[in-house]
Amino acid sequence: MIQQEENTRHLENFSFADFLHEWHTLEDKYSLVSPFIQGLVQNGYVMREVTGPAQNRVKIRDQVSQKETEVIMLGSNNYLGLANEPELVEATVQAVREYGIGCGGPPLLNGTTTLHRKLEKKIAEKKKCGDAMLFASGYAANVGWSTGLLGSGDYLIYDSQSHASLHDGMKMGSFRSIPFAHNNIQELRRHLMQVRWKSPYTNVIVCVEGVYSMDGDIAPLPEIRQICTKYGALLAVDDAHGSGVLGRTGNGTAEHFQMDSEIDIHMGTFSKSFGVTGGYVAGQKEMIDALRLCARSYMFSASLPPSIVAGVHAGYEFIDRHPERLTQLHDNVQYMVKGLRSMGFSIEVETAIIPILIPEQIQMSTVIKRFHEEGVFINGVEYPAVERDKQRLRISMMATLTKQDLNYALGVFKKLGNEFGILS
Ligand code: PMP
User: Which of 196, 239, 322, 373 is deepest in the core (most CB within 10 A)?
Assistant: First the structure.
């Protein structure tokens, strides 16, 4: 495969997809993947070096010239702009002074501080659940609940656009898993009927995302809840991109549909709207107790540092006291979408994620490079993260981007839209 092709194709013509296969030897792997990734780093396509705090404008160091330039950030999941919010920074620093920089152990041993329990209770209260538990990341939370709750003979029925962390849970677990086409309720119903016909009493969990990370579209939770109830399945919602974005108070997709108390397994992350790292699962108390013992990514992994936990707790309080932040986020989304549509970009948007499809024949790395040269940080997503004909620019909107930032970015979209011939 790639080895023979390498003689006739230059490395820069390869894409991520070319590297998704089994390698004969580690030597083969290193000798091709290493120059490929190094090339991407040098071109500023991945691992762009940010030299200051995550905010509306960031400084990036060019890997070739070592020159720093300021760019407008349209590629951060820090949706509410909390990553560098003074109040949260202060709460985090304060906790470092009181608790030091880490716990030195997992939650069941020495890794549960008063701050950890306080945050777990806060999340449980927000999600209207009996209890909640913290994980080192959202990734660990998805792997943890899926492998911790489901055993052999059980079923996970999941949306085909689910995040890699759920897929990795499936690889690690002994349960059976069935995908349904993205947001296709008829197909979900068919799978549930078939599973129940074969196994009337087995445990079945349906997992969807509140907001999907690539298209920014929303799962139709009311319909999904209805059929889960009909077929005796639990409903798990990964709300990584919905919490802090949707709902009257920013409490997430379930709040958007006014059905917080109707979700069996709430999963979320602090790596988006809260601007730090960490994940959680919330649900009925007995389920959380069981997971504390059965979720290996919880039991065998060190706890989040108390400072991060304090920062997230302060984030919840900040969101409650500053509802205008949420309004600002949605205003920014509307402003950007209106501007892009008026230029001829065709986009569908429901949340803080704005996807802009780029024709397959255009090389994404070239587009990204031009955006950076023009002072806009934006992420490209290509196959295998999305289908081949669905490669895209993915704007992640932030509440703290100013009108001046957005106007500048819109100017760049117009210029490059014409340059690449992608305005419809
Ligand atoms: N679920 C979804 C839908 C995500 O987008 C992500 C992060 N990309 C995760 C889970 C994992 O979260 P974390 O970054 O906290 O590990």
Answer: 239
Q: 269 C-alpha vs ligand 1 centroid, how far in Å?
A: 7
Residue 163 Cα, ligand 1 centroid: separation in angstroms?
Answer: 7
At residue 20, does pLDDT exceed 90?
no
Cα 14 to averaged position of ligand 1 atoms, centre (Å): 27
**Mean pLDDT within 64-70:** 92
Which H/E stretch holds residue 290? helix 285-294
Please, what is the average pLDDT of the chain?
94
pLDDT at 399 over 50: yes
Residue of 76, 135, 214, 271 to test ligand 1 pocket, by largest number of atoms within 8 Å of CB: 271
Read off φ and ψ for residue 402, nearest 5 degrees: -90, 170
Rounded-to-integer distance, Cα 173 and Cα 146, Å: 7
pLDDT at position 270 over 70: yes
Edge to edge, the sheet with strand 379-381 lists 353-357, 392-396, 379-381
The answer to whether residue 64 scores a pLDDT higher than 90 is no
Domain spanning 43-73+323-419, CATH class: alpha beta
Would you kindly state where each structural domain of the chain is located, as residue ranges? 43-73+323-419, 85-321
> What is d(CA 404, CA 55) in angstroms, rounded to the nearest whole number?
14
Pocket of ligand 1 (CB under 6 A): 137-139, 142, 163, 165, 209, 213, 238, 240-241, 269, 271, 279
The DSSP letter of residue 385 is S
CB atoms within 10 A of CB 9: 12
At 188 the three-state DSSP class reads helix
Nearest to 220 by CA among 245, 188, 264: 188
Taking 50 as the threshold, does the pLDDT of residue 14 lie above it? yes
Task: Give yes or no for residue 7 having a pLDDT over 90.
Answer: no
Domain 85-321 part of CATH 3.20.20.70: no
Model confidence at 9: pLDDT above 80? no
Q: 0.85 cut: is pTM over it? A: yes
Query: Over pLDDT 90: what percentage of the chain?
Result: 84
Q: How far apart are CA 320 and CA 323, in angstroms?
A: 6
Angle (CA) 276-279-283 rounded to 5° is 145
Interacting residues of 212 by C-beta distance below 8 A, sequence separation 6+:
159, 161, 182, 218, 219, 241
- The SS3 assignment for 414 reads helix
- State in Å: Cα 423 to ligand 1 middle: 31
